[in-house]
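Take a specimen:
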Amino acid sequence: MGTIAEKIFERYNATSDEEWRKIIQRSATEPSVDGITFPLVPDPDIQREYVGSTLAENTHEPYQYYKAIKDIYLSHFAQIDEKTKLLDVGSGWGRIIRFFMKDILPKNLFGCDVSSKIIDVCKTSFHGELDFQLIKPLPVTPYENESFDIIEGYSVFSHLSSFAVLHWMNEYFRILKPGGMLAMTVWKESRFDFIQKIQREASKSPESERYLSILQSSLSENCVFERDVYKKSGFVFIPYSSDLENTYGEAFVSPDALMSQWQTMFDHITNFELDVDQQIVILQKKDNTQQFSDETLQAMASVAKMYDIQSICACDYNKTLYKKRNIFPPGQWLARFLGGGK
C-alpha cells in the first residue's frame, strides 16, 4: 500500500499547482482528504510563533514561494520531478516542504532546522516519513558532498549574521550538486518601511511591541542609520540579544552584496520579489569550482565577525548595556578585538 507520503505523491502528482494549494488548505483543518491522512499541522500557537499565521489562515505566502521555486527551476534548470533531491533549510514546522510532496518522492525530500523542538514536531507531523535533521547554528551538516539538486530556505538569511551567512554559503556549496540551484530569501529594503511604520505608531499593538522588544532596540529614527549602512555595504545585522557571539537576529542582505562575495562559486540567475517583504535570490553552483581554502575562509570569517560586532555595537540598546555595566566603549572593544588594545 505504501506510506502516507507515497500515497500523497501517487494520488496528486498530476494535480495542478493551484488545485494542490486548495487541497493543502483543506488538509490544515480536515483529518483526511480523499481518504488520505495528510501530514498533521501543529498547535496554532506553534504555527504562529514561527510564521505569524496558521496554514488554515494563510496558504498564499508559502504557496507563492513554492510556485516561484518550481517555475524558476523549470525556466533555468530543469523540471522538478520525483527524482529531484531537495533540502528545505530552516524547515520550521514544515509548511513549505509539504507543498513539494506532490512533485518529489518522499525519499528525496529533506528538511533541517536548529530547533530540536520543531524537528520533533516535524517528525510527528509527517509520521516519521520524511527525513528531518537537527543541525547546529553553524556548519557542518550531516549531508554528503553534492547531495542536492535544490537547496531552498525561506526567511533564513533574513535572520543570520554575516559570519553565519559566510559559513552557511560555504556549506551549501559543499552539499549542492554542480549546476544545482540555491534559493534563499532576503528582506527587501521595504522592510525598513515596515519597521519605521511601527516605530511611529502612537499606540503600538502587542505584536509591534514584541517585535521591537525582540530587536532589543527601536533602531535609529526612521531607520536612517540602518538604511544608510545597507546602501553602502549591503548588510545590516541587528542581533536579538546583546551576546557578542550571537549569530541570530534581524539581517538585511542585499543580493548584490551576496553575489560580490560568492561570484567565484555561484552564478546569479535572478531575483524574484514576493508580495511580502521577502525576495528570493536564485543562484546556480558553478561546475569545476572549489570551495574556499581553510585559510581564505578563516580570513573572511574574521572580517565578517568584525562587521557583526560593529553592527551589534551600533545598537542603542547594546550601547546602553555597555555603559551600565561599565565596560569599555565599543570603539575600544573593537580595538581589543583587532589586537590594537590591551
Residues 4-189+254-291 form a domain with the Rossmann fold fold (CATH 3.40.50.150). Strands lie at 86-89, 109-113, 131-134, 148-153, 176-187, 235-239, 249-253, 266-273, 278-285.
